[in-house]
Amino acid sequence: MKLSERQSLGLYISIPFCRSKCTYCNFASGVYPASEHARYVGRIIEDLRAAQAFASGNHLHLPIVVDSIYLGGGTPTLLTGELLAQLFAAIHDVFAVAEDAEITVECAPGQIGDATLYAMAACGVNRASLGVQSFVDVEAAQAGRLHTRKQVFEDVARLREAGIRNVNLDLIAGLAGQTLESWEESLEALGEAAPTHASIYMLEVDEDSRLGRELLSGGARYRAGLVPNEETIIKLYEHGVEFLSKAGFAQYEISNFARSGFESRHNLRYWERKPYLGVGLDASSFLYVAEARENFSALRWSETSELGDYIAKKGAQELQRLDRHMELEEEFFLGLRKNSGVEVGRLKNHYGSAAVEAMLMAAEAMLVDGLLIHEENLLRFTPRGRLLSNEVFAAFLSLPGV
Questions:
Q1: Residues 242 and 349 both lie in one domain
Q2: Which residue, 8, 1, 17, is CA-closest to 310?
Q3: Which of 11, 42, 187, 297 is deepest in the core (most CB within 10 A)?
Q4: Does position 268 have pLDDT exceeding 80, yes or no?
Q5: Same-domain pairing of 250 and 333
Q6: How far apart are CA 190 and CA 184, in angstroms?
Q7: Distance between CA atoms of 286 and 330, rounded to whole angstroms?
């Protein structure tokens, strides 16, 4: 990465508050009393003001210029307009926010109050991401969503009227009871809403969600028995990719699609390993060292996932120091997420040919199996490879240090 690309920062603020917990959700979020909101925002502001001292104490370079801000959750729009204003005022006190910064707020349809929407616009928010998941009201309700299709369309219109015209809509392939017909209904509705960006996620089955735990244990709660099988979920995803392509959206990452010029600048930071600071519950950060050091070249860390511990400053941060081999691993498994793939020549220049060739040897079997393509100095997924991406990433991570 060019040195100039390390001179700006992405800022992620975790807002973990929800009105209800969705069955599929595996994030550190939940239903908490509104009385916790002000205390939590106050704690975030403390962390923002302490960030530079933390970076210096760990030999890290924390850029002052912020060119992307992302409020995720949870449901950030549950905060009052006053709390949002306090939060953005603190961000501007600590950092220099670029004039053309991408500023995103995640929204739950039907949960964007007028005062909150006004505050978002006044604070410079220029992008909204709505967790629709399904435009079929029955499917959405059974997954724990509180909105209707009608409310999604109303909120998209309200956001645009407020000047927030860059809108992302999320869908999930694999919800309980979902069929090819109902999925087509959601896709058609998404096309009708005409967002600038869309995300399609295949249902994740793990122990961090209620539905995932039920599926793993063979239970029937949360309509687990009606979750489509893996083959059907893949078909839903592939149909979604085809639909969005015909509708004018270019796929630029496994789950993300955008009209020209509307790729998520903040999310690209993660996949391109540009610096970002995460503040709040379960938030992750990635910064480079301020100067060359023998034992590590970058640092990742994350905050506690327990709200009470975070507010009380009891949660220990999980620090991970990255050496050059670990960085190279990340270059592959993060870079491959993008449709543009990994620039092999650039990696050889930075990490040395021997280390990169070892990685390419690990990719040989996947090239033969049709999961990867290596051409014109680029290593990238085939469409089939994207469906089996976790297996590909595991192959790279299994290599010993070079």
A1: no
A2: 17
A3: 11
A4: yes
A5: no
A6: 10
A7: 12
Last residue in a domain, options 236, 269, 302: 269
Q: Are residues 76 and 212 in the same domain?
A: yes
| pLDDT for 398 | 59
pLDDT value at position 227?
85
Same domain, 55 and 145: yes
372, 382 contact by CB (below 8 A): yes
pTM over 0.90: yes
| b/e map 167-200, b = 16+ CB within 10 Å | bbbbbbbbbbbbeeebbebbbebbbebebbbbbb
Range of the domain at 373: 324-402
Shared domain check, 168 and 26: yes
Tell me the pLDDT tens digit for each residue of 93-121: 999 999 999 999 999 999 999 999 999 99
Instruction: Give the chain's domain count.
Output: 2
Separation between Cα atoms, residue 43 and residue 160, nearest integer Å:
32
Q: Can you give the chain as a three-state secondary structure string? A: CCHHHHCEEEEEEEECECCCCCCCCCCCCECCCCHHHHHHHHHHHHHHHHHHHHHHHCCECCCCEEEEEEEEECCHHHCCHHHHHHHHHHHHHHCEEEEEEEEEEEECCCCCCHHHHHHHHHCCCCEEEEEEECCCHHHHHHCCCCCCHHHHHHHHHHHHHCCCCEEEEEEEECCCCCCHHHHHHHHHHHHHHCCCEEEEEECCCCCCCHHHHHHHHCCCHHHHHHCCCHHHHHHHHHHHHHHHHHCCCEEEECCEEECCCCCCHHHHHHHHCCCEEEECCCCEEEEEECCCCCCCCEEEEECCCCHHHHHCCCCCCEEEEECHHHHHHHHHHHHCCECCCEEHHHHHHHHCHHHHHHHHHHHHHHHHCCCEEEECCEEEECHHHHHCHHHHHHHHHCCCCC
Among 37-51, 136-150, 197-211, which stretch is predicted with the lowest mean pLDDT? 197-211
Do residues 130 and 249 both lie within one domain?
A: yes
Domain boundary among 269, 291, 309: 269
**pLDDT tier at 206 (50, 70, 90 boundaries)?**
confident
Residue 395 belongs to a domain with what CATH number? 1.10.10.920
- What's the rounded Cα separation, in Å, for the pair 16 and 29? 4
Q: Is residue 60 part of a domain?
A: yes
**256 plus 142 within the same structural domain:** yes
